[in-house]
Amino acid sequence: MNAAAASPVNDVRNTIVEKLMRHFVVTCLVPLALAACATPEQRAAAVERDVDDMIRVYGPGCDRLGYAADTDAWRACVLRLAHRDDLQRRALTTTNCIGHRGFFSCSTF
């Protein structure tokens, strides 16, 4: 048996690590697991709220574009505008830089 493995310092260190892991599990993983347990009714209500928000935000614009309210073309217009704004908000760019001291070459995609 290794004398260093049985030292009181290692016992204290192991106890601290165990307490930190328990604290992490309780404060981070348990709420995450509970949030993932939404009922189908809760998910349906969230989707309904999202649709109501899209209609409130993009419906007047589609009306001004000449679409008759509550028609399939109007709904397609609302979805198209919402999708366009969503893509613009989520536009991701990546910048890569290579080089050495005094010279860098960067490109953004």
Features:
109 residues, mainly alpha, 2 domains, two-stranded antiparallel ribbon, 3 helices, 2 strands, 11% strand
Task: Give the gist of this structure.
By secondary structure, this protein is mainly alpha-helical. 65% of the residues lie in helices and 11% in strands. It has 2 domains: 6-37; 40-109, no CATH class.
Q: Helices and strands: which structural class?
A: mainly alpha
Morphology call: flat
User: What's the main sheet like?
Assistant: 2 strands, antiparallel
Low-confidence stretches: none
Radius of gyration: 27 Å
Kindly state the percentage of residues in helix.
55-70%
Assembly annotation: single chain
Number of domains: 2
H/I helix tally = 3
Provide the succession of SSEs: HHHEE
Task: Please give the order of strands in the largest beta sheet.
Answer: 1-2
Portion in strands: 5-15%
- N/C terminus separation: 57 Å
Number of strands: 2
- Integer average pLDDT: 80
Give an account of the 3D structure:
Helices cover 65% and strands 11% of the residues. By secondary structure, it is mainly alpha-helical. It folds into two domains: 6-37; 40-109, no CATH class. A two-stranded antiparallel sheet has the order 1-2. The termini are far apart. The mean pLDDT is 80.
Produce the secondary structure layout:
Blueprint: H1 8-35, H2 40-64, H3 72-89, E1 95-100, E2 103-108
Antiparallel strand pairs: 1-2
Helix pairs in contact: 2-3
